[in-house]
Design goal:
single chain, 296 residues, alpha+beta, eight-stranded mixed β-sheet, seven-stranded mixed β-sheet, FAS1_domain
């Protein structure tokens, strides 16, 4: 037992990297952060950190920044204020090392929105607002840096609010608008698999009127697309998910194959859309609960 404890401590020590100097100086010496440093040079944010306290930085690596859309890169290039807001969202007040990043912990960012931490033991994954942390505990004189594999974007509201403003979900939103489902999707910590408009348009023409005319069926379908708790794609694995359906047999089967994730017969085509109370994954097929007889 003592040997195991010794080895465990040794591994923890090796995983922690200590840099001489500030966060900015540490990032200059870290592998894979050159693109982030270039973005930071467009602002003066890090120059003001050292006299204001200690921080935790979630630093997108070069690959994450390379995979940004051309439109978003152009927006950051042309709008320094927007770039500063996004960078501030990647910086949390206080020092939080790997051991401090526990499931559902919320950190206050310099941008003022919260950064939600999630831990998925089955996948050995820890995420910050859905972005997987791939390199922990790079210690600087004024804080700690964790490297992430995507760029974090502040949420645009709660789940139902996002459905309301995104035209891609207008048909799905029409099923819940003005109903109790608005509160259901806004007042709970949830994962929503949201069919886009094309998913509904691919159904027989009678399907949507059938759903709209039957309140019990509508409720069953909405609940079948939602799972309690926050499940970002880095935490997903092959298995079944319990939905909000009133029928315990209405489970969702998740399958991972290479870079594709399917939920029942639906494929996730836009993943990890952050909301203040959870996450939305866009799917290309409407899911019908097995307990209900639906044309589709």
């Amino acid at each position: 037992m003592k040997l195991l404890l010794f080895l465990s401590c040794l591994l923890c020590t090796e995983a922690t990297k200590v840099f001489n100097g500030t966060i900015k100086e540490a990032m200059l010496n870290m592998h894979g952060l050159s693109k982030l440093v270039s973005f930071l040079n467009e602002t003066s944010i890090l120059d003001h950190l050292s006299w204001a306290g200690s921080y935790t930085v979630f630093a997108p690596n070069n690959r994450a920044l390379s995979e940004l859309s051309a439109a978003r890169k152009e927006a950051f290039k042309n709008d320094t204020a927007l770039l500063e807001e996004i960078i501030k969202y990647h910086i949390a007040l206080g020092v939080y090392k790997h051991a401090d990043l526990i499931n559902d912990k919320k950190l206050r960012s310099l941008q003022d929105d919260e950064i939600r931490i999630n831990v998925y033991k089955a996948r050995h994954a820890t995420t910050a607002e859905g972005c997987q942390i791939v390199n922990f505990d790079n210690i600087a004189s004024d804080g700690v840096i964790h490297v992430i594999n995507e760029v974090m974007l502040p949420p645009d509201g709660r789940i139902a609010d996002i459905l309301a403003i995104d035209p891609e979900f207008s048909i799905f939103y029409s099923l819940i608008n003005g109903t109790k489902f608005i509160d259901l999707l806004n007042d709970n910590l949830l994962t929503l698999f949201a069919p886009n408009n094309a998913a509904f348009q691919n159904q027989p023409s009678s399907t949507i009127p059938q759903i709209q005319a039957d309140p019990a069926l509508k409720e069953a379908i909405v609940k079948y697309h939602a799972v309690r708790g926050i499940l970002w794609t880095p935490g997903m694995h092959n298995g079944k998910l319990r939905t909000l359906s009133d029928d315990a047999s209405d489970l969702l089967t998740v399958k991972l194959k290479h870079l594709h994730i399917t939920v029942q017969k639906a494929q996730i085509i836009n993943r990890d859309i952050s909301a203040n109370n959870g996450v939305i994954h866009t799917i290309d097929t409407v899911l019908f609960p097995p307990s209900k007889n639906v044309i589709g």
